[in-house]
Design brief:
Number of helices of chain A: 12
Helix content of chain A: 25-40%
Number of strands of chain A: 12
Largest interface: A-B, 57 and 57 residues
Oligomer: heterodimer
Structural class of chain B: alpha/beta
Order of helices and strands of chain B: EEEHEEHEHHHHHEHEHEEHHEEH
Largest sheet of chain A: 8 strands, mixed
Distance between the termini of chain B: 43 Å
Strand order of the largest sheet of chain A: 6-7-8-3-9-10-12-11
Helix content of chain B: 25-40%
Structural class of chain A: alpha/beta
Strand content of chain A: 15-25%
Radius of gyration of chain A: 22 Å
Shape of chain B: globular
Strand content of chain B: 15-25%
Chain lengths: ~375, ~325
């Protein structure tokens, strides 16, 4: 699928979201920052599905929320259809939000248990003055329910009367009620049972075909993301490390982290599982409050080199058409000029900074541990 | 003789003033020494309750457990509480889904391991502490001697799960039950833990019961797989056979509904219609019938029995034919 290159709906420029770490009982002192999102650039075209993947703590949800201005931005631009949403205030911001909606992970906690489905769906329309004509509103409600595959009798029911999959459908109908252009879906299927996941994934795809929606799908499950996305961005510790279309990402991953992530996902096929090679990463994700110097992945990277990796932070650069990667040695790894080596797991302190005096502990090689 | 023989295990939840609910309905399976057996199914299929019943961890009040669980010939369900406590931890170890809620938050990790060693192997505190360091090292926790004095909240999720595995393995049990051990973890950490479990099973000859909803995890780990639906085993097969030629429409549907990383783009997922809430009781037919694409009238009238099918077992009136299964669709 190729679309006109100029037709960009959403552009994010050098977006940063830093959360202050406060300390002190009487006086709040800021003692540090959690660098949840730290310099992200991306462009999303009209009508496409952009997938954001990464492990917990990589900042993918914060990025999704920041796009909708649900998280405070520290710096950067979010240009939605020509206007910089990051600069909007008050009534202008409220109006802009009609065109950008969100679908949440947990359908039960994101629906008010004391509101009927009708009231949930009408609320957004009312806020944007779309419910002036009573008969038209009723028609619209029936349309919405039909679109997400719920019976008309649902209107008078309450969220607890539905199953998990049906609740997620209500969440989707609520997002659609105000006729948005962009929908940010944060882990839309991960709370659902496997057999129901497919129903919701298919529903999202059908709605996109019918209504021409643009999606940003945030998920930790790369298999789901690959299935529904046109392009995918892989995040690690607050930054994009690789971005390309869904097929190249699977067939031709360039960043070492993407490779490890792909190889870690279990495939429901014993033959594949028995034969494929796994790249096991040593250790845990470093703390986003104290990210490693240079390339943020260098502490766990099996392809780490002696120079550049721990001193210079690699920028996203284009290798091949539409394939961006943030790695100093991407070409060398691709062409096999650099071989992976064993990595010693570094201790990750959850409580704060790495102790500089301690030095890396002697715990044997990754192969011995794993 | 099998290491563990579960026969006709049934668990009913009985609450006063409510209709009783059969969570596990006549489940039978064997585990051979060194074998890895999978129990797979969606939420509510009874897989976790099965493991809790085997470990006798269900409260007596409100739960009726019947059938037998023979471990090396002894029926665990008939043991006194005292004898069962001796067995737990020594002969049977268990790893739970959420390591934070299964570790004691106010006791250091080290003490939680040495406790097991002192209780079951009669070790002195000093010897136990040396052994605990060894165990933490074996499950891949960096700097184990320092970690002994740390509390669960100071460890990351993956490290906590490793600590929990160390506790379960402290007495070299012959059977380890892992209930969704990686569900709460990130994929790269999941891969580490699965590799660890695989290696431990190979090195120590421990038998493993793997309980999970993730067919991908099963594909790489289990020798034999039991698929549960509505509290009953609906299909059992060796893993290669199960994934290559699923016979039960439920198994087939599950495989068709998960997006595969290695699938071609644009392939539409084939969901299973409805949800678990649509089940009908087993005594009126097949619980899966309302959601089944292969359902016949007989499916709503006669309860299907678990019968031998090829090398495994199958509970279905109208199974998926291998040729059709290979084609990818049953509708």
């Amino acid at each position: 699928m190729t679309r006109p290159a100029g037709d960009v709906l959403l552009e994010v420029n050098d977006l940063k979201v830093h959360f202050p770490i406060k300390s002190g009982v009487v006086v709040d002192r800021t003692v540090g920052h959690v660098y949840a999102v730290d310099g992200v650039d991306l462009a999303i075209r009209r009508g496409e599905t952009y997938g954001l993947v990464g492990e917990s703590g990589c900042g993918k949800s914060t990025l999704g929320r920041a796009i909708l201005r649900l998280s405070p931005l520290t710096a950067g631009q979010v240009v939605f259809d020509g206007t910089d949403v990051a600069k909007l205030k008050g009534e202008e911001l409220r109006k802009a939000r009609r065109r950008m909606q969100m679908i949440f992970q947990d359908p039960l906690s994101s629906l008010d248990p004391r509101q009927s489905v009708e009231s949930i769906l009408v609320e957004g329309m009312h806020a944007h003055g779309l419910d002036k004509d009573k008969a038209a509103t009723q028609r619209r409600l029936r349309q919405l329910l039909a679109a997400v595959g719920l019976p008309e009798t649902s209107l008078r029911k309450y969220p607890h009367e539905f199953s998990g999959g049906q609740r997620q459908r209500i969440g989707i109908a609520r997002a659609l009620a105000v006729e948005p252009d962009l929908i940010v879906a944060d882990e839309p299927v991960s709370a659902l049972d496997v057999s129901v996941q497919a129903q919701v994934v298919n529903l999202l795809e059908d709605l996109q075909d019918k209504l021409g929606l643009t999606y940003v799908v945030i998920a930790h499950d790369l298999a789901v993301v690959r299935h529904i996305s046109d392009r995918i961005g892989v995040m690690y510790l607050g930054a994009l490390v690789e971005e390309t279309d869904a097929d190249s990402l699977y067939q031709d991953p360039l960043h070492p982290y993407t490779r490890a992530l792909l190889s870690a996902i279990p495939v429901p096929d014993p033959q594949v599982e028995d034969t494929r090679e796994q790249i096991l990463l040593a250790g845990d994700l470093p703390s986003p409050a104290n990210p490693p110097s240079g390339c943020r992945f260098h502490t766990r990277c099996p392809w780490k080199q002696a120079s550049l990796c721990d001193t210079d932070r690699p920028q996203l650069r284009e290798i091949g058409a539409g394939h961006r990667v943030a790695c100093h040695y991407a070409e060398d790894i691709r062409d096999g000029r650099i071989q992976p080596h064993e990595v010693k797991a570094e201790l990750v302190e959850l409580t704060g900074a790495l102790n500089p005096d301690l030095g890396p502990p002697d715990i044997g090689t990754a192969a011995e541990i794993l | 003789m099998a290491l563990l023989e579960v026969r006709d295990l049934t668990v009913r939840f009985v609450r006063r003033g409510e209709r009783s609910f059969t969570a596990v309905d006549g489940v039978s399976f064997d585990v051979e020494p060194g074998q890895t057996v999978g129990l797979v199914g969606e939420s509510g299929c009874g897989k976790s309750v099965t493991s809790l019943a085997i470990m006798r961890l269900l409260a007596r009040r409100g739960n009726e457990v019947s059938g037998s669980v023979r471990f090396e010939g002894t029926d665990l369900l008939k043991l006194s509480d005292r004898d069962m406590r001796d067995r737990r931890g020594r002969d049977l170890g268990m790893v739970f889904q959420d390591p934070l809620s299964s570790l004691n938050p106010v006791i250091p990790i080290g003490l939680q391991i040495t406790e097991v060693l002192e209780r079951h192997r009669g070790m002195s505190r000093k010897a136990a502490s040396v052994e605990a360091t060894d165990l933490l090292d074996k499950v891949g926790i960096p700097d184990p001697s320092r970690r002994l004095s740390e509390y669960p909240h100071q460890l990351s999720g993956g490290m906590r799960q490793r600590a929990l595995i160390a506790i379960a393995l402290a007495c070299r049990p012959r059977l380890l039950i892992a209930d969704e051990p990686t569900t709460a973890l990130d994929v790269t950490i999941q891969a580490q833990i699965l590799a660890l479990l695989r290696e431990l099973v190979q090195d120590t000859g421990t038998a493993l019961i793997m309980i999970t909803h993730d067919l991908g995890v099963v594909a790489g780990l289990c020798d034999e797989v039991n698929v549960l639906y509505g509290g009953k085993i609906v299909e059992r097969a060796q893993r290669h056979q199960l994934f290559a030629e699923p016979r039960h429409p439920y198994t087939h549907g599950l495989l068709a509904s998960i997006p595969r990383l290695d699938a071609g783009r644009g392939e539409k997922l084939i969901p299973i219609r409805g949800s678990v809430a649509d089940n009908i009781p087993w005594d009126h037919g097949c619980a899966f019938a309302p959601r089944c694409p292969n359902a016949l009238p007989v499916c709503r009238e006669v309860q299907p029995q678990l019968v031998p099918d090829r090398a495994g077992l199958l509970r279905c009136h109208n199974p998926v034919r291998p040729a059709v299964a290979a084609g990818g669709g049953t509708r």
